């Protein structure tokens, strides 16, 4: 089931639901596309019609932000918990490790990508890294897609930040022969060890967004996004109801 938040569809799903679906999509013909819905994307998506279209067509739109969960609760929705893109990616890596699946990593700075892959290979030795391309490559989309198709990945993780990763997926997912796609923002930075995740206290109290905004000057503007998102979403819900 999905619900509409600020005009965008978000699925009422948990980590368990998604992990249950993964093997079905790995065996079937339909592509699994996991896209994060957070206050930033909800506030800015109207500038990018293809991102709205991507969300409409995606199989799993995850409530990746406490703001989304909060608005759902305040408006009688059924979203139970935050599904954090980073945590979900880790669970998918664990799954790929257990089942020896092939993974492709696209995005982040070259040295970050290299270190992230080193750590992934160390922590998930049975997962097969079939390829990677950094997010500042001179390759065009055609070449990137060809490089992916050559190695037939099961999972593709795209870490170009919003909106580049969503725009890239909207444009290219149809041409890539892989089963599971996820947009993962700054996750390679965390996996590389170059960027630390918020301390437990902030994660447990749902204040990870605040910690990340305060600890990175380029993200400071995002502090105001959460209250703006909540107010706009409530207003939207009052005018549109559930659809
Ligand atoms: N990035 C990239 N190519 C670009 C712009 C960004 O590969 O042209 C990467 C960047 O290096 C970082 C990630 O995309 O690894 C974006 O991280 P950010 O923290 O901005 O994303 P968020 O987690 O907020 O979506």
Automatic annotation (TrEMBL):
EC top class, as a word: transferase
Keyword line: Cell wall biogenesis/degradation, Glycosyltransferase, Teichoic acid biosynthesis, Transferase
EC number per UniProt: 2.4.1.187
Superkingdom, natural source: Bacteria
NCBIfam families assigned to the protein according to its UniProt record, in alphabetical order: wecG_tagA_cpsF (TIGR00696)
Family per record: Belongs to the glycosyltransferase 26 family. TagA/TarA subfamily.
Protein name: N-acetylglucosaminyldiphosphoundecaprenol N-acetyl-beta-D-mannosaminyltransferase
């Amino acid at each position: 089931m999905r619900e509409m938040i600020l005009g965008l569809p978000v699925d009422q799903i948990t980590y368990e639901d998604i992990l249950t679906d993964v093997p079905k999509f790995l065996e079937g013909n339909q592509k699994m596309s996991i896209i994060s819905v957070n206050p930033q994307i909800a506030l800015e998506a109207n500038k990018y019609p293809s991102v709205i279209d991507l969300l409409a067509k995606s199989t799993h739109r995850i409530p990746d932000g406490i703001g989304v969960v909060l608005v759902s609760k305040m408006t009688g929705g059924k979203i139970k918990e935050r599904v954090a893109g980073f945590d979900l990616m880790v669970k998918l890596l664990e799954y790929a490790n257990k089942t020896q699946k092939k993974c492709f990593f696209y995005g982040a700075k070259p040295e970050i990508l290299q270190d992230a892959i080193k750590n992934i290979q160390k922590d998930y030795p049975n997962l097969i890294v079939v390829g990677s391309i950094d997010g500042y490559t001179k390759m065009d989309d055609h070449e990137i897609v060809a490089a992916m198709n050559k190695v037939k990945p099961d999972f593709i993780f795209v870490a170009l930040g919003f909106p580049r990763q969503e725009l890239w997926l909207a444009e290219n997912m149809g041409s890539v022969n892989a089963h599971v796609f996820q947009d993962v923002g700054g996750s390679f930075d965390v996996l590389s060890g170059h960027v630390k995740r918020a301390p437990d206290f902030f994660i447990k109290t749902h204040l990870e967004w605040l910690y990340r905004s305060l600890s990175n000057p380029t993200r400071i503007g995002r502090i105001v996004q959460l209250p703006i998102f909540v107010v706009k979403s409530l207003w939207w819900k009052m005018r549109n109801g559930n659809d």
